[in-house]
C-alpha cells in the first residue's frame, strides 16, 4: 500500500495516467484514432511543440515565461529559407544562421529581463511582435521554396517507420533531461526559480542563469523552425503562429510550476504528447478549430489552477 502511494505521489506517473485515459477515451469515440498511421502523425506533430517545450520548461522553472517562441520559429525559418532559396547559401550555413537568429532573440529577451528589469511577460510579448513583423518584412508575406533535398529530408525523411523529426525531438529531450537533472547549471536553474534571493546569497549568478535559459529557449525555437521548414518544404512568415500557447500548455500540463522551482523534462514530454493527442482527437471528432481553442484554453486554466491549489497546500 505504501508503495502504491509513493508511485501515485510521482507527478509524472499521474500525468501519464491522464494520457492513457485520454487515449482510451479517444480510441473508443474517435474512429481511426488508434491506427498506426494516426499515432505516427501525432508523434510527428508533437515533435515541433515538444522541442520548444523543453526550452520553455527551463524558462518557467526560473519563474519566467516566453511568449515569443512561435514568432522566433517563424523568423528563423524565413531566414533559413531566404538564404538557401534567394542567395544560394549552403543548407548547413543557412540552418546555423537560423539558429543564430534564435540565439539573438533569446539574448535580447534575457537582456531586457535581467538588465532593463522588464517583466518577462512584457519583454517576450514585445519580441513576439518584433520577430513576427521581421519575418513578414523579410519574406514580403510570400512563401519561400523550393529547397535542396539535403535540407528537406531532415523534416520529411524516415528512419525505418520513425519520422526524422521525432528522432531529433528525442535527442533534444534526452540532452535537456541530462542537463537539468545532472549538471551544476541545471541545479542552479532550479535554485534560481525556487528562491531568487537565496540563490544570490549562496553566490549563484542569477542574471547569467536567466540569460542562459532564454538563449536556450530561443535556440530551441529556431531548431523547431528548422524542423518545421524542412518538413513543410516551404518557409512561411506565419509558421508557428499561436504555438506559444501550446508550448506553455504542454509545459504546465507536464507539471512545471508557474511559481518556479519545479518541473521535469519527462513531465513536459508527456504534457506535449497530451496536447498532441487532444488536438488530434478533437479533429477526428469533427470539432471546429474555434472550439479546439476553447478546449486548449480550458486545459491551460485547469492545469494552472491545479498548480496553484497544490502550491497553496504545500506552503
From TrEMBL:
TM region(s), chain numbering: 12-30, 36-60, 67-85, 91-114, 121-142, 162-180, 209-235, 247-275, 282-306
Alphabetized UniProt keyword annotations: Cell membrane, Membrane, Transmembrane, Transmembrane helix
Any coiled-coil regions, as ranges: none
Keyword hit for Cell membrane: yes
Membrane topology, from the record: Multi-pass membrane protein
Molecular functions (GO terms): transmembrane transporter activity
Designated name of the protein: Ribose/xylose/arabinose/galactoside ABC-type transport systems, permease components
Organism expressing this protein natively: Defluviitoga tunisiensis
Annotated gene: araH
Amino acid at each position: 500500500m505504501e508503495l502504491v502511494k509513493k508511485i501515485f505521489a510521482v507527478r509524472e506517473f499521474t500525468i501519464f495516467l491522464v494520457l492513457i485515459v485520454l487515449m482510451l477515451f479517444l480510441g473508443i469515440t474517435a474512429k481511426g484514432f488508434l491506427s498506426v498511421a494516426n499515432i505516427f502523425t501525432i508523434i510527428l506533430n508533437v515533435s515541433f511543440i515538444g522541442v520548444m517545450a523543453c526550452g520553455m520548461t527551463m524558462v518557467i522553472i526560473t519563474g519566467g515565461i516566453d511568449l515569443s517562441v512561435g514568432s522566433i520559429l517563424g523568423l528563423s525559418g524565413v531566414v533559413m529559407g531566404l538564404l538557401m532559396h534567394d542567395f544560394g547559401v549552403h543548407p548547413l550555413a543557412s540552418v546555423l544562421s537560423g539558429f543564430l537568429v534564435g540565439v539573438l532573440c533569446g539574448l535580447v529577451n534575457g537582456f531586457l529581463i535581467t538588465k532593463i528589469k522588464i517583466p518577462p511577460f512584457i519583454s517576450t510579448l514585445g519580441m513576439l511582435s518584433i520577430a513576427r513583423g521581421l519575418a513578414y518584412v523579410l519574406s514580403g508575406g510570400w512563401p519561400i521554396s523550393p529547397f535542396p533535398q539535403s535540407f528537406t529530408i531532415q523534416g520529411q525523411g524516415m528512419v525505418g517507420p520513425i519520422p526524422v523529426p521525432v528522432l531529433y525531438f528525442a535527442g533534444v529531450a534526452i540532452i535537456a533531461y541530462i542537463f537539468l537533472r545532472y549538471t551544476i547549471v541545471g541545479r542552479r536553474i532550479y535554485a534560481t526559480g525556487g528562491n531568487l534571493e537565496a540563490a544570490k546569497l549562496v553566490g549563484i549568478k542569477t542574471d547569467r542563469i536567466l540569460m542562459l535559459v532564454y538563449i536556450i529557449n530561443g535556440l530551441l525555437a529556431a531548431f523547431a523552425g528548422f524542423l518545421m521548414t524542412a518538413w513543410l518544404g516551404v518557409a512561411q512568415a506565419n509558421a508557428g503562429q499561436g504555438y506559444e500557447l501550446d508550448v506553455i500548455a504542454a509545459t504546465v500540463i507536464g507539471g512545471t510550476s508557474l511559481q518556479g522551482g519545479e518541473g521535469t523534462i519527462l513531465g513536459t514530454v508527456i504534457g506535449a504528447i497530451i496536447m498532441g493527442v487532444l488536438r488530434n482527437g478533437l479533429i477526428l471528432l469533427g470539432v471546429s478549430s474555434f472550439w479546439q481553442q476553447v478546449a486548449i484554453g480550458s486545459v491551460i486554466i485547469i492545469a494552472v489552477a491545479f498548480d496553484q491549489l497544490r502550491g497553496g497546500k504545500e506552503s
